[in-house]
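Troubleshooting log. The previous run stalled partway through. Resubmitting the same two chains, unchanged.
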Amino acid sequence: NAGVTQTPKFQVLKTGQSMTLQCAQDMNHEYMSWYRQDPGMGLRLIHYSVGAGITDQGEVPNGYNVSRSTTEDFPLRLLSAAPSQTSVYFCASSRGWTNEKLFFGSGTQLSVL
Amino acid sequence: EDKVVQSPLSLVVHEGDTVTLNCSYEVTNFRSLLWYKQEKKAPTFLFMLTSSGIEKKSGRLSSILDKKELFSILNITATQTGDSAVYLCAVLSPPAGNKLTFGGGTRVLVKP
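Second attempt completed without errors. Output:
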């Protein structure tokens, strides 16, 4: 049982480049979300989705896009990378929006030079 | 703005010591408080607390919530080196789509 799978694990970008962080879950979870983790700031919600075709903004959405075409996948797109987006990114899912127990992926360490 | 504050920021103990971690919160609409353990990468779920005064236990870890004073504590007794991790507290405040507000975490280092 894979759980939540994120790729890549590490990525280095130059300022202005674009890329997509992939997230897939095989638990048939309705709720999926993206967080970024910066030193001393805990995890901050970027975007979330409560089901296929439905997405919404979290606390820090600027510079990021998401889509949810299937229940399984929830990619995060950086449109034009900036050094301020250097962070560790986590994808997480749960059974429904009322199910608080989140399952996290193993994270993507992103550096923007 | 919802806020979750954890203390201390970090601590160093020796094996066998007892550790108490604190989490205080200010949110507009409280549903539950969760504790996660983050060792290297992905946070893993420890406890979910929704009612005041009811202790949750799992082995040497326990946690309790005080909804009147808006805080929770996580206790680890007889610490082991495997307890070294960052412990995260988060508060769920609907209706904004399972919105979890995380604290900054407490880094615990257990020395042999």
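Takeaways: The mean pLDDT of chain B is 92. The CA atoms of residues 2 and 28 of chain B lie 7 Å apart.
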